[in-house]
Amino acid sequence: MPDIVKVTMETARGDIELELYSEVAPKTVANFVKLAEAGFYDGTKFHRVIDDFMIQGGDPLSKTDDPRVGTGGPGYQFEDEINLKSLGATDELIAQYEAQGYKYSSSLKSLPVDPGYIAMANAGPNTNGSQFFIVTTKPQQHLYGKHTVFGKVVKGMDVVLKIKQGDAVNKIEISK
């Protein structure tokens, strides 16, 4: 896997171009690429959109009107890839999060949960699957250390800001 993977997320509102960073979150990037290349994300909807916060997608249940939308995934989960220390956290905060089940790797350089960044959505420590979110307008420091950030929008942030709940990801193209 190259250090930087280029992604085009096609939506009816326009394209969102992202760069994914293997050096920051190698397993997460490999998982996203594998799912995208298999067509897993094609036709999924942004099932959760919160103004001034984020747009969330990647749930296969969103392809239908399944009432469990928001809980779906690829059928497996994998661990977080986060170095909370690299985000400026105190030892006290790190200990507090570790007591909740989070584990951190000092060998990674984590990115912030800030506008334009893409991160894994999860249901707690080490519960990543296929769901992701893109932060829209404000830094989300309260999420630092709780979500693996693995890339950022490099073109099409205007499209991100236009996405409405129920809008579909038509296709995701990967260029390595």
Automatic annotation (TrEMBL):
<protein>
    <recommendedName>
        <fullName>Peptidyl-prolyl cis-trans isomerase</fullName>
        <ecNumber>5.2.1.8</ecNumber>
    </recommendedName>
</protein>
<dbReference type="InterPro" id="IPR024936">
    <property type="entry name" value="Cyclophilin-type_PPIase"/>
</dbReference>
<comment type="function">
    <text>PPIases accelerate the folding of proteins. It catalyzes the cis-trans isomerization of proline imidic peptide bonds in oligopeptides.</text>
</comment>
<keyword id="KW-0697">Rotamase</keyword>
<dbReference type="GO" id="GO:0006457">
    <property type="term" value="P:protein folding"/>
</dbReference>
<dbReference type="InterPro" id="IPR002130">
    <property type="entry name" value="Cyclophilin-type_PPIase_dom"/>
</dbReference>
<dbReference type="GO" id="GO:0003755">
    <property type="term" value="F:peptidyl-prolyl cis-trans isomerase activity"/>
</dbReference>
<keyword id="KW-0413">Isomerase</keyword>
<comment type="similarity">
    <text>Belongs to the cyclophilin-type PPIase family.</text>
</comment>
<dbReference type="InterPro" id="IPR020892">
    <property type="entry name" value="Cyclophilin-type_PPIase_CS"/>
</dbReference>
<dbReference type="InterPro" id="IPR029000">
    <property type="entry name" value="Cyclophilin-like_dom_sf"/>
</dbReference>
<feature type="domain" description="PPIase cyclophilin-type">
    <location>
        <begin position="14"/>
        <end position="176"/>
    </location>
</feature>
<dbReference type="InterPro" id="IPR044666">
    <property type="entry name" value="Cyclophilin_A-like"/>
</dbReference>
<dbReference type="Pfam" id="PF00160">
    <property type="entry name" value="Pro_isomerase"/>
</dbReference>
